[in-house]
Design a protein that fits this description.
The chain is mainly alpha-helical and about 150 residues long. It has a single domain, classed as Zincin-like, CATH 3.30.2010.20. It contains 7 helices and 3 strands. Pfam families: Zincin_1.
């Protein structure tokens, strides 16, 4: 899947967030990169066989004080990593799956990853996000195949 199509799925994943969530997102750039940088891998304490599907960097809404945004304030970033997501999608479907089946799995993983990272933007820690994912019935593939 090329970058352009992947970016469309990321935009679609964002649009799948509930409207009230999208209305309350503040100062966040949604990015796509092929792979996590070595710096990010190191900062996240990843082992060689681990990767990231997405990464939130910034000041969560729950921690922003009255001084937030005074002066020049760079946006928080949420980065989705294309190659790990594509690899996970291929691993998560039957080897006889069609390209459309793989695309649907990518769509699902992207939407779940977008939700996961924006949950961090709203102030949830990793444990809280995973608990909510369990309630929503998502995230099992993360525990088996990668980290977000």
């Amino acid at each position: 899947m090329d970058m352009r199509e992947f970016e469309r799925l990321v935009a679609e994943g964002y649009e799948r967030l509930p409207e009230w969530v999208r209305e309350n997102i503040r100062n966040v750039a949604l990015l796509v990169e092929d792979e996590p940088s070595e710096e990010d891998r190191e900062a996240e304490g990843l082992q060689r066989e681990e990767t990231l599907l997405g990464l939130y960097k910034g000041v969560p809404l729950s921690e922003r004080g009255s001084d937030y945004g005074v002066g020049a304030t760079l946006p928080d970033t949420i980065t989705l990593y294309r190659h790990p997501i594509l690899e996970l999608a291929h691993e998560s479907v039957d080897e006889r799956a069609s390209e459309e089946d793989v695309r649907e799995k990518v769509r699902e993983i992207v939407a779940d990853t977008v939700w996961h990272e924006f949950a961090h933007h709203f102030g949830m820690n990793e444990q809280e996000v995973r608990q909510r994912e369990g309630e929503r019935g998502i995230g099992d593939y993360r525990a088996q195949n990668g980290r977000t």
